[in-house]
Amino acid sequence: MAETRTDNAADPQLLLGQLLFGKQMTYCLSGVARLGVADHMSGMPMAVEDIAAKCGAHAPSLYRVMRMLTSMGVFKEAPGKRFALTPAGELLKSDAPGTMRYFAMMFGDEWTTRAYEHFTQCLRTGEDCVSKAYGKHVFDLLAERPEQLATFQAAMTSSSTMAGRAVANAYGFDGIERIADVGGGHGALLAAVLRRHPQMQGVLFDLPAVVSGVPKDQFTGCEGRIEIQSGSFFERVPNGCDAYMMKHIIHDWSDEHCRMILKLMREKLPKHGRVLVCEMVVTGDPGPSPAKLLDIEMLVMTVGGKERTEAEFAELFAASGLKLNRIVPTERPLCVIEAVPA
């Protein structure tokens, strides 16, 4: 039997080979997510033929994919080509808390994969890959593709559900009477904060097409304390708030666009007010990090968007009439970056 070597870090060629096969891992995850494979599984082994029959797959092909994903810790394989879910695999279920199913589907959507075909041109010119592939901004493109936009929104909602718990656990919202979640999507983050702080009023603010899809039960337990407004954060932000919160909004946009958003908030902010930017922070640690990976996605998908360092956040705030007050880490890679009037 041939010896299998697992210490790829000791062999540069094997290390690079494994990194290059990241495409295969992404497409395998995206494929099983789109088929809903995990929704038909549990912690008990199940024959691959039965799984394939339930999700409409070709059993021999599905087996090869699940065998590979087993090697990465997504599934467990039992004798007889039977598979069960691991804790990681559970996150591919549609209804799992913090589900990653919609992220996996999104990463295989044509608008994201076609964009990466232009990556070398991005490196040469700094132009984002979506504009190169489609001639328009990513959000304008998604607005024309309702099915893919729905997948994107579902991914953002699942992200906000986990982020909401982390932010509510880590950050003290004491003294805030009325908070607006600007670009708040379907309101998962705001709902988590309002449930934790029953004295607080909240405003969910996003584009009309986005807030029209807010689930009816999203703000259960927050009745009488929530207002939903629609509009563009490049034109206005809600009035009468002593705090503005944004999750993964600033990283979508160039410094110029971010200053426009932050200045609108500064104009409305009372002296004791706060701006809470919920983002990852790029540190000086040379090791791998989620922030560095997400930064490449911003490089490819957005016009000038990026993950920022503490110094870059401070500079951005200063140019908008604000000052960086503190950075509060959470149990997730996300931080709450607090700015106050300068």
> Gap between N and C termini, in Å?
68 Å
Average predicted confidence as pLDDT: 95
Report the radius of gyration as a whole number of Å.
Answer: 22 Å
What class would the helix/strand composition place it in? alpha/beta
- What's the architecture of the largest domain, going by CATH? 3-Layer(aba) Sandwich
Tally of DSSP β-strands: 12
Q: Strands of the biggest beta sheet: in what spatial order?
A: 6-5-4-7-8-12-11
What is CATH's topology name of the largest domain?
A: Rossmann fold
What is the helix content?
A: 40-55%
Description:
- The protein is an alpha/beta fold.
- The protein folds into two domains: 8-96, Arc Repressor Mutant, subunit A; 145-341, Vaccinia Virus protein VP39 (Rossmann fold), CATH 3.40.50.
- The protein is 45% helix and 16% strand.
- It contains 16 helices and twelve strands.
- The protein has helices at residues 12-20, 22-35, 48-55, 59-71, 87-90, 101-107, 110-116, 119-125, 129-134, 138-143, 146-170, 188-196, 208-211, 255-268, 290-301, 310-318, and strands spanning 46-47, 75-78, 82-85, 178-182, 201-206, 226-230, 243-247, 274-279, 281-282, 308-309, 322-329, 335-341.
- The strands form three sheets. A seven-stranded mixed sheet has the order 6-5-4-7-8-12-11, sandwiched between helices. Strands 1-3-2 form a three-stranded antiparallel sheet. A two-stranded parallel sheet has the order 9-10.
